[in-house]
Amino acid sequence: MKNYLLVLLLSLPLTVLGNTNYFCQNALDDIPIQQGGRVMPLYVHAKESIKFLTGKSSVGKVSAVEAYCLLSIKGFGLPQSFEIQAPIEHEKLKDFLKLPDRHPKISFDQLVLKKRDLIRQYQMEKEESSYKKALNKALNRVKIYQDIAAGTNWTLAKPIDNKVSWQPFVNFFDAQAVMAQVGAARSEYLYREIVKSRDYYAPINGTFLLELKYAKAHLIGWALLFTLLALGAKVLFKNPKISLGFTIINIVILTVFIILRVLISGRAPVTNMYETVMFSGYGALLIGMIVGHFKKEFIFVMIALAYNVLTLMMLIFADGMLNAHISPLVPVLRDNFWLSTHVSCIIISYGALALSWILANGIIIRKTFFSISKQDENYYSELIYTCLKIGTTLLAAGIILGGVWADYSWGRFWGWDPKETWSLIVLCIYIAILHGRYTSWIPNKRFIQLVAAAFMSVMMAWFGVNYILATGLHSYGFSQGGAVFLFSFFAIQIAIIFVGSNFGKKKKIG
Amino acid sequence: MWKKIEKKLGNLKFAVVVIGLFTLAMIVGTFVESYQGTEFANRLIYKSVPFMILQFCMFLSIYCATTLRLPPRKKLYGFYLIHSALIITFAGSFITWYAGVDGNITLYPNSPSKKISLSEDVLKMSYHGQGKVVTFALPANAFASNLNEVYQGIALNEYLPYSESKTQWVANTNSQQGSDQGLTSSSYFISNSNVSQEFTLSINPAATEFQPATEMGPLSVYYLHQSMAPCFQETNPSGLFFWDSEKNICFTPEERKIPIKEVNSKKRFLALKDEQGIVSVYFPEVSPWPLTQDLKNIQKSNTRIFSKRVFQEKPALFLFGKKLAFFSDEQWHVQQISKEKSIDLPWMGFSLSLLRHEHALYPERVPHYITPIQKNNELIRGAQKALSLKVQDKSYWVTDQKPITLLIDEDKVTFEIIKKSINLPFEFNLTRFQMNKDPGTNNPASYESFVRLFTKDGPENHHIYMNNPLKHRGFTFYQASYFPVDDTNFGSVLSANVDQGRPIKYLGSLLLVLGAIWHFHLNKRNLNKLKLKRQKVASA
């Protein structure tokens, strides 16, 4: 009843405004909202929601916050011509929705009308298929859209009995207080009420304001810029000091990024694919700096920077596969000590092994398309060997720490879970290579090829268990998609080794 | 001789081959686990004899590689430490495997328990008369196997660790063949544009796993003797008919001129006199059986009464093998049905066809081995374990989902496939299970069991949750799972564990990491030498 009254009251002055932004503006960025089990700024939630719905972080010139706010206002049943469109990529779904090939988009209001048909299509699709996944994604989008457009997705903090109560947007306002306002003042009054929510909640827990700064700082973009500058300074200008300077700035940026994520989430940033990819690049950079310093060899920093370019580009461009969203942990992971030791150790070991992989591929490519002296090949092989030793030691330590944690929380040291088994497979593969290398059983050329190939096992343990096997107790790290990325990686890596080994043979015969 | 063997086993090539095979087995294991489930992967690979032999070969390789390099050399201190650590870890793991306990204890709210279920399957035979219980360990195989065991005339034959029951049609025994030809069984196929289902109904008493009726949402389906079909065609005003199960005939009261009267409560009643002159009184709206003076069913009567009116209010389908009847458009329809001719039913666009109709055969559910298939960490096919028994020349199947009870030498014996269990020397009671959720969501944030432990020194209260196990008298209890008991209460599953090898494994692990660091540190000079060599070549 209260809602109906409110709708009636609101509709009088706002109908006159027609298609204005009402009180929706970017100044709402710092309004706290409770969603997905934690409190975050509206800026973060609106951006993630609009991106999920439309595939983009804004709707034309309308920012995500404004768009989210305008959609939420629909919950009052007000006349609104603002609409957003869902991108439809799947050919069969495009055909089903009768969308043109040139502009495969459909407005959400139309998609809502077709919800029943989509559900029926989903039910009739018995086997798992790309069409079924596309239908599922479309239905999830419809669900979120309906939640936002009903005004129930946006929650606002209100003090009730001296406690924070999170009220849906449609229930948040006091109907009598709204009635006391007249004309345009009513719109301003509503805005002031929403801002009050922030002023009330911020002194209680201001972490969400930190998240706003974090989200607006775009630190990963800056880190990529400085990584490229560091590489450019060394490769183009042959100036290792400037390169080192940029590298240190990069490390500082990534450290700030990690600290902010720790402060926001209250845990080590190693709990999903996005964080592990970032952390492995960071770990590789630290190892590159430390080993480079002690071995007096700048090339360690260079390969760490090259690896960082790959990881940072993945974080920025592969956002469909790597989700930057910070979400609460599943119960079993809620132990900061083990999380920050076991997972960090494993991920840094992957970073160290990635350095060996980049060096190995670098040598193969250089040998195949350019030339390399025997001394250089021996020397670089030794650098690879150094990376392998660090990587395997850290990996062994990480596996053992995992075993101890599993023993502590699940009651068994080892359980042949796919994630732990693949970690052991990686360790066994690298140990076999190290044995062969240590006793000179494996010659240099074969050693380099094996190291390049062995990183596929790391990728399988890291990505493959989540994207291909998708089972086991480590199921909290699971993600959708990514299999295409992994198979492409395998295909490219095998092609490099194949071309490298065949080219070498021809050269010998010649 | 030993020196030769030691040299072979300590050889690097042997080590690489063993590591390679071990790695390959693990790769296969992870894919098997992904598609067939954890238990199947354990049975096929990780806990199989060949895999254990492979691990033993690794142990031998590590051991011999170490002893071959004795007496100790300073350069190899890291190597000795790594290999000794691996041997220690192997020893710890062996102790855990040999002497450890790894099971689960299921706790219902406020009901004490001390039983730990282990992972091994056993056949439990309970002799009710003698109060005797006998258990047989069932093999932890991945595939079907023949036990070839006999115990007091009971033969334990084929054991299927993963199975699915399929319907088989078996011949009636001689005694059944000579009796009623109307004891039929039939399979039907019902479908509309959205759903389809095959179902089998039977009135043959030998078909113990098949019922003569089923429910499909609001639709009730009844499978009746074929001799009742003609009376559904009758349009007698009372809508009543009698069925004589001895003579397999049906007749209406109007046909026999039996008067239908009403009691004060408007309920109808009839009196039927049989050939012996015994009068039975029927209240068709109350029961199909004749009733005694104090309104109790006389179930030994051969004649029953049916009121078709009772089934006119809600969807009801009557099947008689090759005929069917239903009420629609204010009248009863009786039609022939076959595989070729499907009948359109008056509900939700359903149509029905007859797949099979038998009177000399009856359906039986027989387990068949199937490679399991898992989805979302649960087996969706092959989750049933089944064992074939032969008692007094007759074969039976017992499954973990359906125990059987047989009369053997005038003693009732129940056969069950269950998990092996042991009893704790103390008792547990779940006083409360708490599941906290992430704010504003239904996502669990923590699972917590509040338990009371009954020890010799009196009761103790403990709080068990993720990463906070309870240790008591050598046992460690971990929060593993939970299950709803009713709308408000939950039960809890704790994993219970005894691991005597734990400190040895921890020591081995610690030494392994230290050894790797040491080994790595000792090899640092090599790089400097190469660097100098490279610089010399470059300057030359």
- The residue fraction in helices of chain B comes out at 10-25%
Determine Rg of chain B (CA atoms, Å): 35 Å
Task: Give the beta-strand count of chain B.
Answer: 33
* Poorly predicted sequence stretches spanning 5 or more consecutive residues of chain B: none
Distance between the termini of chain A: 90 Å
Measured by DSSP, the beta-strand proportion of chain B falls in: 35-45%
From the spread of the alpha carbons, the general shape of chain A counts as elongated
How many domains would you count in the coordinates of chain A?
A: 3
Arithmetic mean pLDDT of chain A: 86
How many E-type strands of chain A? 6
What is the end-to-end distance of chain B?
A: 54 Å
Unreliable runs of chain A: 12-19, 472-479, 506-510
Biggest interface found: A-B, 65 and 65 residues
Q: Figure out the total of helices of chain A.
A: 20
Structural class of chain B: alpha+beta
Largest sheet of chain B, described in full?
Answer: 10 strands, antiparallel
- Give the C-alpha Rg of chain A: 27 Å
- Give a short account of the largest sheet of chain A: 2 strands, antiparallel
Proportion of strand residues of chain A: 5-15%
Which helices and strands appear, and what pairs or packs with what?
The complex is a heterodimer of chains A (510) and B (540).
Chain A lengths: L1 H16 L14 E4 L2 E4 H13 L9 H10 L11 E3 L3 H6 L8 E3 H6 L1 H10 L5 H20 L5 E6 L2 E6 H4 L2 H6 L3 H18 L5 H11 L1 H17 L4 H26 L7 H23 L3 H19 L18 H34 L4 H36 L8 H21 L5 H26 L13 H27 L1
Antiparallel strand pairs in A: 1-2, 3-4, 5-6
Helix pairs in contact in A: 2-3, 6-7, 11-13, 12-13, 12-15, 13-14, 14-15, 14-16, 15-16, 16-17, 16-19, 16-20, 17-18, 17-19, 18-19, 19-20
Chain B lengths: L1 H8 L2 H25 L1 H9 L2 H20 L8 H23 L1 E7 L5 E15 L4 E6 L7 E7 L2 E18 L2 H5 L6 E7 L4 E7 L10 E4 L2 E5 L5 H5 L6 E5 L4 E3 L9 E2 L5 E6 L5 E4 L7 E2 L11 E5 L8 E4 L3 E6 L2 E6 L6 E2 L6 E8 L2 E9 L3 E3 L2 E4 L2 E8 L2 E6 L4 E5 L2 E27 L6 E12 L2 E8 L4 E3 L2 E10 L5 E9 L3 H21 L2 H15 L1
Parallel strand pairs in B: 9-17
Antiparallel strand pairs in B: 1-2, 1-33, 2-3, 2-28, 4-5, 5-22, 5-25, 6-7, 6-21, 8-9, 10-11, 10-16, 12-13, 13-14, 14-15, 17-18, 18-19, 20-21, 23-24, 25-26, 27-28, 28-29, 29-30, 31-32, 32-33
Helix pairs in contact in B: 2-3, 2-4, 4-5, 5-8
